[in-house]
Amino acid sequence: MSLKKLYIELTEKCNLNCAICYRKSWEHVQNEMDEKTYKNLLDSIKECEKLERIVLGGIGEPLMSPLILDALEEFGGYHLTITTNGTMVKGEVLQKIVKSCDALVVSIDGLEDSFMKIRNENLKVVLDNIEMLNEEKSRKKSETPRLFIEFVLWEENVQDVYAIIDLAQKYKAKGVIFSNLLPQTPENAKKILYSRYENRRMKELFKSLRNYSLKKGIELLLPEFELKTERRCAFVENNSAVVTADGSVTSCYRFAHNCLEYVFQREKQVVRHVFANIKERSLKEIWEMPEYRAFREAVLYTRFPSCTDCDLAEGCDLVRDTTSDCYGFSPSCGDCLWWRKIILCP
């Protein structure tokens, strides 16, 4: 299968320092995509005839990148999505977003108090920008970009879930994407809302949320809140790849950076896994590399263990990091919460 969806990380930098961000466990200097790497990327993309969708996102704030205005022009011919914290949606960037983007996903993890606690920023800044976005769409008589709110669920903001649907309706959002917290600290690991087995609390909450959002005319994308038999990788099934700020090509967001995560309070080191770099090979060549093809096939057909619900996990050395597992699969996806649909990405 050909590459159809590409996630591009123009920068690892961000203007916020959120309490639940993946960057909390990073130790390296944060990169910006340089112009040479960006040019290689543009040339590579032109060779990918089947590419349909581009997402400007990653772990950094894409609107901080010096390349953002050019990227909005270059990628406007694709189904373009931007994921953003919303604080920089203004001025010329806002105008180009309305011109070029199909969807804008804005992270809002709660109302004023929760938002300030998590992001150390005033929610009004983001809402004012969304208001300006809607005004620009109205002036241009444009239905795009469709606005989505992304909300990361944990104990600190679960009280705001109904209010966030009200907010989505008020600010003309198409829908709300709920995901779950992937903790980076042992303290936050105690505040997750999902569980291994039956979770009546979240089952009742999500049932009520579905009915509430239906009445409000707001679409919902909901994660799983307990381990299910069904497991699938949206990155692989959607024929997606990720290009990081330094030009590295990897399979998904999880393997894009070294970081620490807690899977049901069990510490795990995620080891970055890169197939190649667009500074050295084209994107199409990398996508067709035998080792990358073999990886996608193995993930598609689940040729690796399910570590998350394994009875031996607590005493297993292999689950301490992602380098390999008891099937000999490398890198290991056996503990991946995206695979379990507990964590969602646009």
Automatic annotation (TrEMBL):
<keyword id="KW-0004">4Fe-4S</keyword>
<dbReference type="Pfam" id="PF04055">
    <property type="entry name" value="Radical_SAM"/>
</dbReference>
<dbReference type="GO" id="GO:0051536">
    <property type="term" value="F:iron-sulfur cluster binding"/>
</dbReference>
<dbReference type="InterPro" id="IPR034391">
    <property type="entry name" value="AdoMet-like_SPASM_containing"/>
</dbReference>
<feature type="domain" description="Radical SAM core">
    <location>
        <begin position="1"/>
        <end position="219"/>
    </location>
</feature>
<keyword id="KW-0411">Iron-sulfur</keyword>
<dbReference type="GO" id="GO:0046872">
    <property type="term" value="F:metal ion binding"/>
</dbReference>
<keyword id="KW-0479">Metal-binding</keyword>
<dbReference type="InterPro" id="IPR027604">
    <property type="entry name" value="W_rSAM_matur"/>
</dbReference>
<keyword id="KW-0949">S-adenosyl-L-methionine</keyword>
<dbReference type="InterPro" id="IPR013785">
    <property type="entry name" value="Aldolase_TIM"/>
</dbReference>
<dbReference type="InterPro" id="IPR023885">
    <property type="entry name" value="4Fe4S-binding_SPASM_dom"/>
</dbReference>
<dbReference type="Pfam" id="PF13186">
    <property type="entry name" value="SPASM"/>
</dbReference>
<keyword id="KW-0408">Iron</keyword>
<dbReference type="GO" id="GO:0003824">
    <property type="term" value="F:catalytic activity"/>
</dbReference>
<protein>
    <submittedName>
        <fullName>Tungsten cofactor oxidoreducase radical SAM maturase</fullName>
    </submittedName>
</protein>
<dbReference type="InterPro" id="IPR050377">
    <property type="entry name" value="Radical_SAM_PqqE_MftC-like"/>
</dbReference>
<dbReference type="InterPro" id="IPR007197">
    <property type="entry name" value="rSAM"/>
</dbReference>
<dbReference type="InterPro" id="IPR058240">
    <property type="entry name" value="rSAM_sf"/>
</dbReference>
